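Sequence, please.
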């Protein structure tokens, strides 16, 4: 009797999960166009490259660019938030490489290293996300 109850429960869970859409990202994204300067931290004397961030979340961002770094490459970024004179400084890691298609432009998905953000940049980001109704930057 107990085993049948467990199987029934599992069957119900599986049926529920099949009807739920797959959610790739855990944080809401803001569609935006922000100037960004970025470079790999591997090459010591590499110059910053200019591109644009086309979406931003608490955990990551997408840089529209033709420059491709390998997955897991650490990058340094300077993002120019709207109405800010100075860029915020971020560090992150390449987590996705998008190739150009009819649906997407080529670029890099970057996972932000929250623990490596300077306090001034952290405060500006927190304010930026709250203005866009995304709360809990460091939860």
């Amino acid at each position: 009797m107990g085993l049948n109850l467990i199987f029934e429960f599992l069957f119900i869970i599986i049926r529920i999960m099949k009807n739920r859409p797959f959610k790739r990202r855990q944080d809401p994204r803001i569609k935006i166009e922000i100037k960004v300067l970025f470079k790999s931290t591997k090459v010591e004397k590499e110059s910053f490259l200019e591109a644009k961030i086309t979406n931003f979340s608490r955990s990551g961002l997408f840089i529209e660019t033709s420059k491709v770094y390998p997955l897991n490459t650490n990058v340094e970024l300077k993002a120019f938030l709207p109405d800010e004179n100075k860029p915020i400084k971020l560090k992150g890691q390449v987590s996705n490489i998008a190739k150009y298609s009819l649906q997407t432009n080529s670029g890099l998905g970057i996972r932000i290293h929250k623990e490596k953000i300077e306090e001034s940049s952290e405060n500006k980001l927190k304010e930026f996300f709250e203005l866009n109704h995304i709360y809990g930057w460091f939860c």
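The first helix runs from residue 2 to 18.
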